[in-house]
Amino acid sequence: MADEVADGRRAARPFWRMIRRTATLAALAGALALLVSLGTWQVHRLHWKEALLADIAARRAMPPAGVDKIGAILASGGDVDYRPINVTGTFDHAHEQHFFATHDGQSGYFVYTPLKLAGGEYVFVNRGFVPFDKKEPATRMAGEIAGEVTITGLARARLSEKPSWVVPDNEPAKNIFYWKDLEVMTSHAGLDKARVLQFFVDAGDAPNPGGLPIGGVTQFDFPNNHLQYALTWYGLAATLAIIAATYWWRGRRQRE
């Protein structure tokens, strides 16, 4: 009786070894498919990023447009982000908004000031950077330009929502913004929403009296590491394929 049980166990071993090998190869194949799909996704992201950068470069090379043209492009569903613009009006310094930012390794704020246009509309202009201790306008009165000014800069698209959950919530009560919520900026500045243009303007690098705010702070350094990521995923996939092939070959040798 004991011999029959032992024989049964020995007969079952090849079957269970085959099951384990099949399960292992299936798992390896699944992991390989996942790695290849991640690499392919990064390739698609690479093409998307390259097209985006080319589009932005083309827009930046265009001649400056007026407010009406930018508004018409926006109304037709076009992208106005980084489009050069000229805008003339009078700054409402009493209602400037402060966006937490860094510039040249220093922490501080970008100053977003409503600019009142001749027709009574307003557009928020990012005049540039001020350090923490220059947040209050009274500390940099020389830069609080009075009278009509013409700003040459770049139109910037508004955000429809907070870009990420890791971004802190805005603190309008302290006049500190961590993301460009045009609606809240408008409300906090006491402006009529219907009279505020639905885009921002980043001022160029023309110096302001007294040196503040520091203009020309628009960022163009977009990370594009998708090729590196794709090669990493494909490299892991190739390594896993070699491991799977070696495992299969050894199993076959054992069976033979």
Notes on the structure:
A hairpin with a 5-residue loop joins strand 3 and strand 4. The chain has four helices and six strands, in the order H-H-E-E-E-E-E-H-E-H. The chain has two domains: about 20-55 and about 225-255; about 85-210, Beta Barrel (OB fold (Dihydrolipoamide Acetyltransferase, E2P)). The chain has helices spanning about 1-60, 65-75, 180-190, 225-255; strands spanning about 85-90, 95-105, 105-115, 120-130, 150-155, 195-205. The protein has a five-stranded mixed barrel with strand order 1-3-4-6-5. The mean pLDDT is about 85. About 40% of the residues lie in helices and about 20% in strands. By secondary structure, the chain is α+β, with helices and mostly antiparallel strands.
Order of helices and strands: HHEEEEEHEH
Radius of gyration: 30 Å
CATH topology grouping of the largest domain: OB fold (Dihydrolipoamide Acetyltransferase, E2P)
Q: Enumerate the spans where pLDDT stays under 50 for 5 or more consecutive residues.
A: none
Structural class: alpha+beta
Task: State the major sheet.
Answer: 5 strands, mixed, barrel
CATH architecture of the largest domain: Beta Barrel
Strand proportion = 15-25%
Distance between the termini: 31 Å
CATH uppermost class of the largest domain: Mainly Beta
- Number of structural units classed as domains: 2
User: On the 0-100 scale, what is the average pLDDT?
Assistant: 86
The rough form would be described as elongated
Order of strands, widest sheet: 1-3-4-6-5
- What is the number of beta strands? 6
How many DSSP H or I helices? Answer: 4
**Helix residue percentage:** 40-55%
